[in-house]
Amino acid sequence: MAEKLSAVKGMNDIAAPESAHWEWLEDKIRQLMARYGYRNFRAPIVEPTALFVRGLGEVTDIVEKEMYAFEDKLNGEHLTLRPEGTAGVVRAAIEHNMLYDGGKRLYYMGPMFRHERPQRGRYRQFHQVGAEALGFVGPDVDVELILLACDLWDELGLTGITLEINSLGQPAERKAHREALIRHLEAHKDQLDADAQRRLYTNPLRILDTKNPAMQALVEAAPKLMDFLGAESLKHFDTWRALLDAQGVTYRINPRLVRGMDYYNLSVFEFVTTELGSQGTVCAGGRYDGLFEQIGGKPSPAVGWALGVERILELLKSQNRLPTAPVADAYAIVPDAAVLPQVLPVLRALRRAGVAVLMHTAGAEGMGSMKSQFKKADASGARFALIFGPDEVAQGQVSVKPLRAVDGQVVAQRAEALADAAHWAASLR
Length: 429
Fold this sequence. Notes:
The protein is of the alpha/beta class. It folds into two domains: 18-169 and 229-318, Bira Bifunctional Protein, Domain 2 (BirA Bifunctional Protein, domain 2), CATH 3.30.930.10; 330-428, 3-Layer(aba) Sandwich (Rossmann fold), CATH 3.40.50. The chain contains 15 helices and 15 strands. The strands form three sheets. An eight-stranded mixed β-sheet has the order 1-5-6-11-10-9-7-8, with helices on both faces. One of its GO terms (molecular function) is histidine-tRNA ligase activity.
């Protein structure tokens, strides 16, 4: 017997009925994106490694420790399974000159890959939905993206999600803050853990995001980036906040919010929840005006966010907001395989009319008894049984039997199509 193979650790199969929840969520997102004018974009899963090294930053955790990077055996290219979506969107916008006629609003959804320790809400293959507004200076578009996310929470019925915001200013301002931050941390070097000491001179801003309780007092006393912002950065931040206030959006300014990619500037934000433990960030993003230039394009403003699909589904589950898995409207009971030539056209006509129908199929010993078929019909979750018995077929009719209580709306939607089954049966014999 061949050795049994299993999925790669942290890369999960998603089967029914769970997959129905994914489809439901994706449909909700597509509809909302369309209402906001965001168009779907699909990028390759594999990109040049240099795209992420230059775009995310050489000393970020993603590039240093988490990327699935490899050399193509056929031509020696250095490639990477995408760890996030923004860099690929910007690469495509540059390559195809997407902004020649003005800004673009795009969204994507699909798998991303990071070599992490798998845990609840954090997997090696995970799925993101991203919304990117390219070519817009903002901060009105920054607010639009916040409202887009808020409307999604409302559509899904989610509660307990809070918004945190900050400004990272511009590169020169961050440079001045970085120097002050290093001086502060150097003066207390004995209090830094190993990770912080490693980052001290390469990416000290990320030390502010430490989860180490022993370093919290040191981080709280560190110089605040907000104190280094110039007039233009403060104007952008103040206008952004004023627009959020005008829309009644509640938020908290978090001066330690820095995000994990080097490409961010000015506005950054996270939507967080306390219900998912350490994986409490469900959606995050910000402005990345310098990314186009970093990866070889003309300078262009841009802002966007990404949400974790697995985390949103976990939150929906914890709040009992997931819909009941969809079931078939009807189950076709066929006692005799000889009548299948008459049955199949009827079922096809029903499906074309919008009725979801499961057909009983023959086993090794034939179609099985009516009793066994009714058991399968009931187990299927279908609301009705369509009975193609000898008497019904002889008369060109179909019997319709309710299998469970159905609400009035379902009956109103399906009754007409189900009633027409007999007519179709007669006309198609």
